[in-house]
Amino acid sequence: MPQLAIDSACLPQYEKLDRATRDRLLAATRKFRELSLRALFAHPDLRIRPLTGGQDPRIHTFRVSDSWTGIMLAPESGETFLLIHLLPRESAEEWAGGQRHDVNTVMGTLERRDATALDRHAKAPEPPEPAADPHLFDRVSDAALRQLGIDAEIIAFCRTLTERAELTGWAPAVPQDQYDVLLHLADGDSPDRVMREVVQPRRAVGGGDVGPDDYDRAIRNTRHRVVMVNDDEEVEDVLGREFDAWRVFLHPKQRDLAYRPHFNGPAAVSGGPGTGKTVVALHRVKHLTERLPLDGRVLLTSFTNALVRALQRDLALLLDAELLTDVDVVTADKLALDVVRDEHPELGFRSDNDVLGMFANVARKHGLPWPADFLVQEYRHVIMAKGIATVDGYLDPDARQGRSTPLSVEQRRDVWHVVAETRAWMRRTRRLPTLELHAEAARILAQRTEKPYTNVVVDEAQDLHPAQWRTLRAAVPPGPDDLFIAGDNRQRIYDSSVSFAQLGIRIVGRSFPLRVNYRTTTEILTWAGEILRDQPVTELGESAPEPPGLTRSLLTGRPPVLHGAADRGSELAALAAQVRSWLDDGIAPGDICVTTRTRRLREDTVAHLRAVGLPAAVFNPQEHTVDDTEIVRVTTMHGVKGLEFRAVAVTGVTKDALPQLDRVASAALDEGQHAADLAAQRNLLYVACTRAREALFVSWHGEPSPFLPAA
Ligand SMILES: Nc1ncnc2c1ncn2[C@@H]1O[C@H](COP(=O)(O)OP(=O)(O)OP(=O)(O)O)[C@@H](O)[C@H]1O
């Protein structure tokens, strides 16, 4: 019986069909699965026709409705039909006539090219050019290109290119996997690296070569663009999910990481914004849950309540209801609170502001010279970060490694005294701040022989404090697949720095980068990348620099709009005009997000937008979900962490606000902390700007922030 596969190019087209046409398409796809080849080709309604004079004899068209045509690859010998595209009748034949499909025998994938356009290019007379002009791929030999799966036609084509932009302009015509190889080479990656990162992950499952005529196997191996469907439900499920393509079409590297049978210990996935780390984490949960022992449980955790709720929603799209019950999706803080409350139900929660006040009180009582800020930092970044439990531990010469303010032994004794007294006070009053809850949770979990989880998957890992990591580490027995960690140090916006090795999380040899951005246009990503110019990026959980490598987007669009206003009133007026213009362009209010530097400005901005008749509301990621489509959300820059919107306005990027110096430790107090706090604020601007999918508006009043890229 024939099999049916669907190319991802059909998804956005399906969105354009009305209900009746969708039903007709569904009925047609049923016939492709159920009828014999003879009956199919003779079917009067379907009117399957080969193209006359097309580039690819396997391409056929069929009738979906009077106005829509389906385009199908019907292999001569094989069993598998591939639905390639859905197009309005008047444009279908012209498009289909130019396309050709070939098996890439090196990667084992099925690729499509615009053969007519490439022919035309090959036959065009060479423009006169100076002989010495370098070509884009001069440094790569034909033999190396062949090994990377570039075929003769594309080798000849790429030898004519002199600039990257020429290559990207040809993206729709060049076979998709070969295009990816060429883009990596154009960005300076070595052939060895391209082999490792692009070619190998695409190679056929089960190994071995895929022959040039083995269309069936190539179709099955092209899982990043093609999905096999077995029944009506699956067809509808795939086609009706343009915005959830991540559920079905994983990048080969994403699939490799998510569905690798086992990692022999903790594994980490890093990569710039929008590279699909969350997507990989979700698929990893699917993989782990499907293999869970009878009494096993999986924990999926992220940073804020809003992110946790978004993960719950997305996981429900990926997992059967039965499997979902084996997964807890909660923040690390909620886990710690539950573990502690289990043993001490009476314990309450204490805010960080409260902690600052307590330190100030105790220091004053003892007449000590340090400001409360300094004591809180010593408590947070030394004592709690390193898990120091005794004065001797604190007096150890290595304890304060990385802190730049020297303290004599006597001074350390004084600091320890203040910290110990404050902590005792917290316990006496039965109200603990987050870090204390984690210390207690980790202690309780360490004593338990039965750990609550079989596997722990962590998203947005870059901002967790070592105390939070200790809870997560203690929640799962060490061993294969214990921790799967996704994060990006470019997006670290809080002040914690973490050494996985010191926390007993050994990821050496199991740390993998993702490099394709699926969210943001090249224009926005490139501009935002300049915010981090000269700022070295370290590897997740380590102090070593991240290996070099570009994050690239395959999307293109308009450059960011930058607006400098004379005063706050004019800035707000420009913001309102921008939001209105996005709404006029058909962007739904819920697809628009405005960020501000502080909470006070957030409230103020909402009030202004409402006053001019725009549907705006405050978004607080600890309280709200991200599903409301009726309002423009206004949130702080911290509040957009991990989220994305079609259009984002980043406001108040003013010299006095970024960096906000009252949130930066003074260099006199601790130089290292000063630099780390500044870096976190620079990252904050980067995070806010990289939430935009299509449109980014950045504004300030008075002098612009020094973090902004030079005009
Ligand atoms: N294979 C894929 N196919 C289609 N869309 C994808 C794929 N992978 C990721 N995406 C989409 O790209 C966007 C970014 O993905 P995701 O949120 O997982 O990235 P991230 O690396 O976690 O981002 P960030 O670090 O910026 O929070 C999402 O809209 C996601 O659905």
Automatic annotation (TrEMBL):
Its EC number is 5.6.2.4. InterPro entries: DNA_helicase_UvrD-like_C, DNA_helicase_UvrD/REP, P-loop_NTPase, UvrD-like_ATP-bd. It holds the Pfam family UvrD_C. It is an enzyme of class 5 (isomerase). Coiled coil: none annotated. ATP binds at G271, G272, P273, G274, T275, G276, K277, T278. It catalyses: Couples ATP hydrolysis with the unwinding of duplex DNA by translocating in the 3'-5' direction; ATP + H2O = ADP + phosphate + H(+). GO terms for molecular function: 3'-5' DNA helicase activity; ATP binding; ATP hydrolysis activity; DNA binding. GO terms for cellular component: cytosol. Residues 250-521 form the UvrD-like helicase ATP-binding domain. Keywords: ATP-binding, Helicase, Hydrolase, Isomerase, Nucleotide-binding. PANTHER family: DNA 3'-5' HELICASE, UVRD / RECB / PCRA DNA HELICASE FAMILY MEMBER. This is DNA 3'-5' helicase. It comes from Murinocardiopsis flavida.
